Amino acid sequence: MTPVELSRTVLRAVRCAVDDGELHVAVPGRTSVTPPGAGGCGDYATNVALQLARPAGQPPLRVAEILRERLVRTDGISDVVVTGPGFLNISLSGTETALVREILLSGPRYGHADRPTGRLVQLHAPHEVRAVVVMDAVARILRSQGTLVRTSCAGRPEPEWADILGVDVDAYGTPDAPAPLDVNVRPVPAAPDDPTPLGRDAARWALLRPALHDRPRITADHLVQRESNPLFRVRYAHARTRALTRNAADLGFHAEPGDTDLRGAQAAVPETVVQDTHDTTALRHSLADHPRILQTAAAHHAPDRLARHLVTVADAVLPFLAAVLPRGAEKPSAAHRARLALAEAAGAVLAGGLSLLGIDAPEHL
């Protein structure tokens, strides 16, 4: 169950409580679920009971208990605990295995819409390199969510924008072109320097990662291969996941979603390996949040949200990768296959996100 699906489940619980006469409130159009904060527990938490308490005329703890009774009976939810003034802390059943299986089934298209929505959006950009690159990325993200997109530019794009930066513009002309313009893509400030000397990947990252109101840095820092460079961390994390798949094949095993905790393995494992288990909660949350990030980036025409999310995924998976393969004379176990599956799922999310930004996801780095 993804955060989006869980949010809908929480709203259904509210609606059922209203229909049964236990709550007298207007059902909100949306509610958010997030990783639990300090003092929380489980996989996700929501403050919907606190939001509804005043209009319902009931204490938050009473509202939370009404909703808890309905949520615990929902398939996919193993437990719901009320903490603090009325936070609902939700534990999902089979969370990691189901999530990894879903991602591996979808591959880099995880988080994409199943079918076209029929919605048509016309994007238009001024004749400026940052605006055109942002428009290109926005078009890619919108298409991933089932939207039909047409792009246009106020003037003919420079040849190097297509040849080096990989932008694709459907039409060009003056802003008063006859086609209706639904969205004007105009990030401010514009690119301070020509980004093309950085090459496609670094140039696009330099233009797309800052929020549209932030000034991009067109510097060689984006080319440096070290941890201080976020683009390097993202691409390196993807390359590492691909290397693990190759190395596992050499050892004679493949990925299979399951329990990633070596302590749950059937065979005995060395104590040093048992101590090297990793909490995958942050990684699991970042992967589960990917569909919501794509939807938000599409809705707000903000590719920077996707870029920052990829950094979050990379930073969550990199510490975990060292524990994926067996060590020394240790034989591959079910836990190793499950860890490889989780690593491959992270790689699929990174590859899909980089592709939507128009950036290469290397097999080797």
Describe it for me?
This protein has 365 residues and is of the alpha/beta class. The two termini are 33 Å apart. Helix 1 (3-19) crosses helix 3, helix 8 (230-251) packs antiparallel against helix 13 (334-356) and helix 11 packs antiparallel against helix 12. 46% of the residues lie in helices and 9% in strands. Mean pLDDT is 88; it is low at 175-179 and 262-277. The protein has helices at 3-19, 48-56, 60-71, 95-106, 129-144, 159-163, 200-208, 230-251, 271-274, 281-288, 290-300, 303-321, 334-356, and strands spanning 44-46, 77-83, 87-92, 120-125, 148-153, 171-172, 183-184. The strands form two sheets. It has a four-stranded parallel β-sheet with strand order 6-5-4-7, with helices on one face. It has a three-stranded antiparallel β-sheet with strand order 1-3-2, with helices on one face.
Topology overview:
Blueprint: H1 3-19, E1 44-46, H2 48-56, H3 60-71, E2 77-83, E3 87-92, H4 95-106, E4 120-125, H5 129-144, E5 148-153, H6 159-163, E6 171-172, E7 183-184, H7 200-208, H8 230-251, H9 271-274, H10 281-288, H11 290-300, H12 303-321, H13 334-356
Parallel strand pairs: 4-5, 4-7, 5-6
Antiparallel strand pairs: 1-3, 2-3
